[in-house]
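User: quick one - fold this with pyridoxal-5'-phosphate bound?
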Amino acid sequence: MTDQLVRPAGRDERPRSVDAGLRRRARAVIPGGMYGHQSAGPLPPEYPQFMRAGRGARIWDVDGNEYVDLMCSYGPVVLGHQHQAVEAAAAAQAQLADCQNGPGAVMVELAELLVRTVEHADWAMFAKNGTDATTTCVTIARAQTGRDRILVATGAYHGAAPWCTPRPAGVTAADRVNIGQYTYNDLASVVAAAQSGPELAAIVVSPFKHDAGYDQELVDPAFARGVRELCDQTGAALILDDVRCGFRLHLGGSWEPIGVRPDLSAWSKAIANGHPLAAVLGNDRFRDGASRIFVTGSFWFSAAPMAAAVATIGALRAQDAIAAMDRTGDRLRSGILAQAAARGIEVSYTGPAAMPYLTFAGDRNHEQASAFAAAAMRNGAYLHPRHNWFISAAMTQADVDRALAATEAAFAAVHAP
Ligand SMILES: Cc1ncc(COP(=O)(O)O)c(C=O)c1O
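Assistant: Sure. Structure tokens for the protein plus pyridoxal-5'-phosphate:
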């Protein structure tokens, strides 16, 4: 959930569909219907809200329409829907027990596996959502440093808690009093923000700039190194928010390719291929702070998602899934850019191959992007006009071809020759 727009209810364009019936019922018993939840607000009106099934890279809505899935549940599905080994591991654990008086042995197995897999990690803690993970990172940084102030990039999304939610409703000034801002990829702005207040507890940073609705920006390695150095000089924690990118760009952590290691990192989404789990990973400098904070949750120690995570990490490695997503993403990018060029449509296709985002030149209110997305959806590809897309390792050449057939029809629909 990363968008902040709320669309008024009652604009279903499939009035007799199962989806429309569910929306009507939801409006009566769920505040805002579904529009206050998930990312339904900024989707074109005819998008289905309710989904029925998924297999590999295909999904079906509650009305039975089939799509190639280019959103992967907004990130959690990395190996494809219903991945056999992951589902078998989760089911085997669930058959023993899931939510118990204490964690299963699998929690230690998973912590050991994460510490072996993610390069900067000396320890792991678990939770449920990305917001839990980013918030816990911030709490650990404050506990360890004894300082309050945190820096975040303007416009970056780190979750739905008062310290970071993009929607102002219900947030007080006090919730944000210790939060300063910098501009992503602008080291001078980080230094200026660091100097303009009390000493820092932490700098929070995303692996690349993936703010909803904007062209994506890869990280400048010099910026990443500079932020690392600033944290080393000031004693602040470098927190990498790997909630969205984690295990999509590099198994060892998303900044491994540029050789910059955080002190703390936040994970969720893809780590258990769709099963509810989050993790905080950290180095030994922050172990004491991590052991002193109070964190728990009724379901945080449930064992089945942890078994799913162990299987997910095993399958990501065994399938060389990150390289596969990269290759698939490259094919999709080449195809889409060729389609746009053939029609003379000026687009930006930004971000890593496995997490792309498409914008149209001069499309300020995302009107063209929304029309494109709606046409792609009608033609069998599920993508998003304001949020980056996700490629899963389950996407075959046939899925790419199907997606490209849909985007070709979508370009035709938005482009009057
Ligand atoms: C970068 C990033 N951080 C944090 C979060 C929050 O995760 P969750 O929605 O699981 O709380 C998200 C969710 O989209 C995210 O993309």
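One thing worth noting: The pocket of pyridoxal-5'-phosphate is lined by residues 1-2, 129-131, 134, 157-160, 206, 241, 243-244, 268 (CB under 6 Å).
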